[in-house]
Amino acid sequence: MDKNTLISSFGKWVSPINIQKLTEQVKELKQDYYTKKLTTEAYIKLLLVAQLHEFESLEEMSDALVDEV
Question: Is-above-0.85 flag for pTM?
Answer without folding.
Answer: no
